[in-house]
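pinned: reference chain
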Amino acid sequence: MHATRAFALAFLLGACWLATFRPAHAQLVLGVSVNKAPPPLPAYDQPPIPAPGYLWVPGYWAWSEGVGYYWVPGTWILPPQTGLLWTPGYWDSEEGVYVFHLGYWGPHIGFYGGVDYGFGYDGTGYEGGHWKDCSFFYNGAVNNLTNVAVTNIYSKPVAIDRRSNASFNGAMGGTTANATPEQLAAQWEHHVAATPEQTQHAEAASKDPALSLSRNHGHPAVAATPRAGLFKGRGVVAARLDKPIEAPASKTPAVSNATLFQGNVANHKLPSPKGSAATSSGSNEDKSLPGAKPLERRSAAPSHHLRHGSRAD
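pinned: its structure tokens
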């Protein structure tokens, strides 16, 4: 499967959740080999929430052949069902290549590589809010709730201790977080893929030249948007300027044939960044792995420091 299409697929409790939740695949993993690490996360502020009921989905670096790395802006999204939370996708370094794990909706936050996306996503969980009695309650300490009448608000200060703006887990320069038992348990729960709104948002980002790393040098003019697909106008937030980042070549075969693995991660052989893709079955078509085991990770304890508000320098 082409990498662009694969990235585009990248997104209570109690009686309320049981009445509304319909399961999808347990986990989606994009088996795409990239031999260059994704760039650091840009620093940006969160745009105001457009209306009550929306949840924040942080921005991330995606990859497309012919384009290379490009930024998918953070945005506010209506969850597909009541009681669901968004676990962001993340890049993971395995044996010298970088593999992207797609985000998903689920009743609990799973492992997302220890990447500090900000706005409640501190790398270990989510401090931006929670569901209660079929309503979402927002933490005003990490969400921009200005200009909108939101009644379900509480304030829980979180510590600012940003150690890294790394966008990937493992390898030199990446995060060193490991999945907790709770995150591993969440990985086995039923998940819902990205909504059509999220899919269209990611597709639009892949087609916008200004969002490519080769053009924005790591500091996109559209780092976050108040609504999905809205890349111009009021509320659009630019990244803070910093040291320019050099983009790796995008027209060379740095990516082998992409494979979308559906189900929990198996101990499959990763594609080589210098050759054609090779999955455990030798095919580059979509694979369902319903009986596969979660990817085993090192046992060291992950960081428990929290992020407050915006992506900081």
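why pinned: Residues 1-313 form one domain. Confidence is low (pLDDT under 50) at residues 1-27, 251-310.
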